[in-house]
Design brief:
It is a single chain. By secondary structure, the chain is an alpha+beta fold. The chain folds into two domains: 30 residues; 107 residues, Immunoglobulins (Immunoglobulin-like), CATH 2.60.40.10. Helices cover 29% and strands 31% of the residues. It has a four-stranded antiparallel β-sheet. It has a three-stranded antiparallel β-sheet with strand order 1-2-5, with no helix packed on it. The N and C termini lie far apart (62 Å).
Length: 146
């Protein structure tokens, strides 16, 4: 058998088909996590989110997130010292939705909350804090590396 252009084109086509088949197989095995299961409803309410962020920016003092090796301390604005703050804190892991974690705000007498992070997977996390004070909603988000 003699090697000519016909065989060369045939081998290139077979290799190309094998490559595309492998690419399709590998891409079908990748898990894709949505940012949110109900993203459409959240998109409709986005103007409310903008208002919460504006309210947060109008505060004299901002929420501070202090990262330590074993825990995170969230210090609430001094405007709310001794007052009841209602809301929740969401720990959002962009690359693994199964790691997402949510808890309620429980402010101490020192106007802070300590959250143990030893069980959290290392990597980038986004902390989303939603809180209400005197019928006004606020929102703060911050990215951290654990």
């Amino acid at each position: 058998m003699k090697f000519n252009w016909g065989w060369g084109i045939f081998i290139v086509l077979v290799l190309f088909i094998a490559f595309i088949g492998n690419l399709v197989y590998k891409s079908s095995q990748v898990r894709v996590d949505l940012v949110s299961e109900n993203y459409y409803e959240k998109e409709i309410k986005y103007q409310e989110q903008i208002e919460r962020e504006k309210n947060s920016l109008s505060l004299k003092h901002d929420i501070h997130i202090i990262k330590n090796p074993d825990f995170i301390e969230i210090v609430y604005p001094l405007d709310f010292v001794g007052q009841q703050i209602a809301g929740n804190i969401q720990f959002f892991k962009p690359d693994d939705a199964s790691q997402d974690y949510m808890l309620d705000i429980r402010s101490s007498d020192l106007n802070s909350q300590i959250i143990n992070t030893r069980a959290f997977k290392s990597g980038w996390w986004e902390i989303k804090i939603n809180w209400t004070y005197r019928n006004t909603d606020y929102y703060k988000t911050e990215k951290i590396l654990l």
